[in-house]
Amino acid sequence: MLEKLTLYMTFPYVRYALIVGTLIALCSSLLGVILVLKRFSYIGDGLSHVAFGALAIATVLNFTNRMIIILPITVLTAILILKNGNNSKVKGDAVIAMLSVGALAFGYLLMNLFPASGNVSGDVCSTLFGSTSLLTLTSSEVWVSGILSILVVVAFIFLYNRIFAVTFDEDFARAVGTKVSVYNLLIATITAVIIVLAMNLVGSLLISALIIFPALSAMSILKSFKAVTIFSAIISVTCALIGFLVSILQGTPVGSTIVAVDAIMFIICYIVGKIKG
């Protein structure tokens, strides 16, 4: 096993995939704590389906760099969800559900009407559940993912107190002068960025698990916001590394393996939390 891992690590694309996967897992865990506490975790699922629809558009238009299309559309959708979330006619959860189902259907329809290859089913399956595309990352894509991930982490660290206030009590944060709408907009934008980055890792249908599982695992054992955030990041990065290594050794899909490890970790943390009382 050690020889096999050592051999694989000599290939640049494997090292690229490991770096990107770790950074995405770290960012997803930080964001997941906020979304779970704000009871808005379903936005990840909705935006991931929107990203799938945007990917279909980029594929049909034969864009070499698909992120040019996917990232703006996903960010714009996140902003629209935030702005119209409290609309009296269409509530936030209904908006997310409509966008989720509509974008998924629209994307699949486009990929069937204008197939980019002879294996449409394979393309759709790999997009929804992740594939070995993570192992074909170029150095430029790694740099983009790395820079965006670092920006997310830096923003979270420097704005920690404001994010904490907005997460737990928007009314109090607004009363003391915090621009709640600006920080909600920032959270929505960061969510969209992470969704786009995570598509190659776990696929559109499994992104929510990468965001939610580490946060719920940490909350099963710990209570304070800071402790939960730190432990969630540790769990997420550890599960990503284990899942990645297992997928190399056993030849399993990267995304599905990582999510399975996250699920097992949640069960373990839940049992430990019950024992602790």
TrEMBL record:
It is found in: Cell membrane; Membrane. Signal peptide: none annotated. The chain crosses the membrane at residues 13-37, 42-61, 94-114, 142-160, 181-199, 205-222, 229-248, 254-273. This is Metal ABC transporter permease. GO terms for cellular component: ATP-binding cassette (ABC) transporter complex. Pfam families: ABC-3. It comes from Pseudobutyrivibrio ruminis. It comes from the Bacteria. Keywords: Membrane, Transmembrane, Transmembrane helix, Transport. It is a multi-pass membrane protein. Belongs to the ABC-3 integral membrane protein family. One of its GO terms (biological process) is transmembrane transport.
